[in-house]
Amino acid sequence: MLVAQVKPEEPDIVSKALAKNRLGVPSVVFFGVAGAAPLTVIIGSITTIYAIIGSTAVPIAYLVTAGLLSLFTVGFVAMSRHIVNTGAFYSYISHGLGRIIGVGAAFVALPAYSLMQIGLFGLFGSVASGILGAFGFAVPWYACAIAAWFAVAILGLLWVDLSGKVLAVLLVLEIAVVLIYDIVMIGNPAGGHVTFSQFSPAPLATPVIGILLVLAIAGFVGFEATVVLSEEAKDPKRTIARATHIAVILAGVLCSVSAWAMSVNTGPDQIAARAAEHQTDLVFTLVGPHLPGFLVDIGYVLFLTSVFAALLAFHAAVSRYQFALGREGVLPAAWGRTHPRTGAPLLGSITQSVLAIIVLSLYALVGSDPLVFVFAWLTTIGGLGVLILMWAASAAVLAFFMKNRRGESIWKAYLAPALAFLLLTVVLAATCIGFGELLQVDGDSPFQWLIPALYLAVAVVGFIWAMIMRAARPEVYAAIGRGTEGRVSAVPDNPSMLRPLHADPVGARSGYPY
């Protein structure tokens, strides 16, 4: 008796593979939450938003953002049950919107994630230099950044579960200190009473909510790293879905509660002024009078390790994007190879490390402020690219299930992706229109429009490259976004739909729908 199998709708391309069955739900969650770097967001981003915007609506803004991204995640993880590919956004967009648009998305993803990771080296170097300075050691930010770069470069070539264990230790400590600080701030409220007015939905109807949501979403960038690890996860069809939901909810709750706790301690009417005065030292200033000195010192150290955890997570993401593109022929085949012992993406990891050291060296030679021009600028520019990818992915999820619902509910296949696409369209438009304000440049600066235009340009280059591949290498074009397990079944988990498999050679079809 022959074993019946589901006939794949697209060719299945098998190449060098990443290490399989390495990561369970906790490890994947750690990668996702590490990318979002909650302690970095709480100490750095939230205090900055309070200082610049001056609104008390930050706690509700983070809750709304968590809700929006949870809505996006519904369709995103539903699609992950049908497609297992480390290319994540690139792969999903290829399946939903077509190979040409998928390659354009890949060309956006590579600089976006690369810039996010390199920018974080500026924050790490600056914070580490400050901590060492407090102990009497004058070490320049660049030297501190190089130390972190070396550690990330080595870990990026080792077993992915080793990085997961490192992230687990760092994040457990990080979340613990966040909770301690929150309890202390809430336990010492201004005026002797706790207020919940910061969760009022009224500010959502004012113009300030647009920029608040944009800045809040930037703090979540990195949670989608869970899907990038799908090929290395145990039981990816369940692991990735659970881990992605948990990563979004955990990051959202931590950021919202911490933003509220700060305003409870200072009083809602004083939070903006105190944030402008103390900036990234705000949290430590608020908890310092109520905690032993060593707990405050530990907070500074964990702030540093939070940034390191994010560096490691983004390095894993960008190196695996390069691997996926090399495996499928979009990049040279050398990028599609893994380390023979660890299964890590070899050339992708090395390429990102080389790019990082070049960019950091140039900034050091020019003498630029690492907080403003390395961290703030590069992560903001990279964040715009990831937002573009999320917007396109939400459209791709909807298009994917419009062709065939594949046993998913109407909510998961249609309603949630459609709502996410509409809301992300509004947020993306607001981001592009006000991008100069996010970079804090003058109104006549070319950076008001240059960065969105450059992303459009690299996407167009990707479109053209895909069309060239379709004409010159149709068998490679057929593999775009399909990975090693990119089979798409009509209705998975339904035995009645199974039928004999007739093997077709790769590229045997004479034409492609897109």
From TrEMBL:
- How does the entry describe its membrane topology? Multi-pass membrane protein
Could you list this entry's UniProt keywords, alphabetically sorted: Cell membrane, Membrane, Transmembrane, Transmembrane helix
Q: What is this protein called?
A: APC family permease
Q: Which residues cross the membrane?
A: 28-53, 59-79, 100-127, 139-159, 166-184, 204-228, 240-261, 298-318, 346-366, 372-401, 413-436, 448-468
Upper classification of the source organism reads: Bacteria, Bacillati, Actinomycetota, Actinomycetes, Micromonosporales
Instruction: Give compartment(s).
Output: Cell membrane
Question: Does the record carry Transmembrane as a key word?
Answer: yes
Look up keyword Membrane and say if it applies. yes
Primary location: membrane
Q: Name one Pfam family in it.
A: AA_permease_2
